[in-house]
Specification:
The protein is mainly alpha-helical. The protein is 48% helix and 5% strand. 22% of the residues are buried.
Length: 231
């Protein structure tokens, strides 16, 4: 349907626009998640003719409504996926270069005839939760004997990024494997809603820990959703 005469469609002549490669959406969206897309778009909107920009992490966080540590990890996720290059000029100043996405010919078509979605059970392998340095975060004995190994964790997927954000927000890095299983199983919107409820709960109402309360509420909402689907 064409817009009527009173509708003003967007244009490119006045300069109020920017562009990104289709590959960022079509190939990398599943890897970097919605926040990764938002951060990349913000960088693209600020990029000069050399495809570089230098906003502070504080500025990015305030623009998008996320915490600075979460933005910092998202930027590293974009870098690890080859979408940006981070050049550190000083302790507090970085320059971000937007790189050409790596993709094969034909991977960024306008539309496709098929959309072969993978079943969740085919992709949600919680046992494949190994950290970049080959440390298994499900091996609780190793974590208990050497808690510092979790400090080397560098998220490479949006699920790992979300899991780490949950673990740090709840001050429970040892529960990282549990939060990663939740990130693989439940929508991010649900987990963040539960996290918000937990953080707003007064300290005197916390029986064990905020991590335990988070786990309880997630299970509660999951059971409720399951009952609603069965009716």
């Amino acid at each position: 349907m064409r817009p009527n005469s009173k509708t003003e469609v967007r244009g490119r002549r006045n300069g109020d626009w920017y562009w990104i490669d289709r590959a960022v959406i079509q190939k990398y969206a599943q890897k970097i998640g919605a926040v990764g897309i938002a951060v990349y778009n913000l960088l693209a909107s600020l990029a000069d003719r050399n495809q570089s920009c230098f906003p502070s992490q504080k500025y990015i966080a305030e623009c998008l409504g996320y915490s600075r540590p979460y933005i910092n990890r998202t930027l590293k996720l974009l870098e690890s996926n080859g979408l940006i290059k981070i050049e550190r000029r000083s302790r507090y100043r970085c320059v971000y270069y937007l790189l050409k996405p790596r993709c094969e010919a034909g991977e960024t078509q306008m539309s496709t005839g098929e959309n072969p979605d993978a079943n969740q059970e085919d992709t949600n392998h919680n046992k494949l939760t190994r950290i970049n340095n080959h440390v298994d975060i499900e091996d609780k004995d190793s974590i208990d004997s050497n808690p510092d190994i979790l400090k080397r964790f560098r998220p490479r997927t949006r699920e790992e990024l979300l899991a780490l954000d949950l673990a740090e927000a709840l001050n429970d890095r040892r529960g990282l494997a549990l939060y990663l299983s939740y990130a693989n199983k439940y929508p991010e919107s649900l987990l963040r809603r539960v996290l918000g409820e937990v953080k707003e709960t007064p300290e005197e109402r916390i029986k064990k820990s905020r991590g335990a309360l988070f786990n309880h509420l997630v299970q509660k909402y999951a059971q409720k959703a399951s009952k609603n689907l069965s009716h």
